[in-house]
């Protein structure tokens, strides 16, 4: 008999059969959302984090890779990149934004994505990497394999969002992007976050 329960999207789903080349992604937010949602760590359901107060709307699908966690291993990669003010990872699953040409209207779903790079973001002394990926099989973005292949306008649009989405008008920046890295470095971050998860939760 099949158990009648819903798998927790963080703990109950694998990171993927071909990780880090192709990863499972749990999507929390889509570009049309004017509310920031995030998964409730206890129940696994999506919850309202906060309304978006300004015109800063996520420019791509956004979520996390299951069974990842950003702690010491992710922090060490940030330090290796030259960030000497980092004390920890952000103690959350690894964030990922997925580029797709399709209009997906709501989060709370799983998809497969191909990591092509990322941003080494430092937020108040914490390593808060943002992996950039493309939806597997997408007819417009699915052929990209490294962030260097993307139009610079696309990269800058993503960077601008992550550098400003927490800021109120006239406030100083709360975070910075230490570096923009390609697919191989993104895979290193993913594997580091999986080791952090295993160290924290086992498995």
Automatic annotation (TrEMBL):
Signal peptide: none annotated. Pfam families: Pyrophosphatase. SUPFAM superfamilies: Inorganic pyrophosphatase. This is inorganic diphosphatase. It comes from Chryseobacterium koreense CCUG 49689. One of its GO terms (biological process) is phosphate-containing compound metabolic process. Keywords: Hydrolase, Magnesium, Metal-binding. The keyword Magnesium applies. NCBIfam families: PRK00642.1 (NF001886). The keyword Signal does not apply. InterPro entries: Pyrophosphatase, Pyrophosphatase_sf. Its EC number is 3.6.1.1. GO terms for cellular component: cytoplasm. It comes from the Bacteria. GO terms for molecular function: inorganic diphosphate phosphatase activity; magnesium ion binding.
């Amino acid at each position: 008999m099949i158990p009648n329960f819903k798998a927790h999207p963080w703990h109950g789903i694998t990171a993927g059969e071909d990780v880090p080349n192709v990863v499972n992604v749990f999507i929390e937010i889509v570009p049309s959302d004017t509310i920031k949602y995030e998964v409730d760590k206890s129940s696994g359901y999506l919850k309202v984090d906060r309304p978006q107060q300004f015109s800063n709307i996520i420019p791509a699908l956004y979520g996390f890779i299951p069974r990842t966690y950003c702690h010491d291993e992710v922090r060490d990669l940030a330090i290796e990149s030259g960030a000497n003010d980092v004390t920890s990872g952000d103690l959350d699953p690894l964030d990922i934004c997925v580029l797709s040409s399709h209009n997906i209207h709501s989060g709370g779903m799983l998809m497969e994505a191909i990591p092509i790079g990322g941003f080494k973001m430092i937020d108040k002394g914490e390593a808060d990497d943002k992996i950039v990926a493309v939806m597997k099989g997408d007819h417009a973005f699915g052929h990209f394999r490294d962030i260097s292949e993307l139009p610079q306008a696309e990269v800058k649009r993503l960077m601008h969002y992550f550098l400003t989405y927490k800021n109120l008008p006239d406030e100083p920046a709360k975070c910075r992007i230490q570096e923009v890295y390609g697919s191989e470095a993104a895979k290193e971050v993913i594997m580091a976050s999986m080791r952090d998860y295993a160290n924290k939760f086992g498995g």
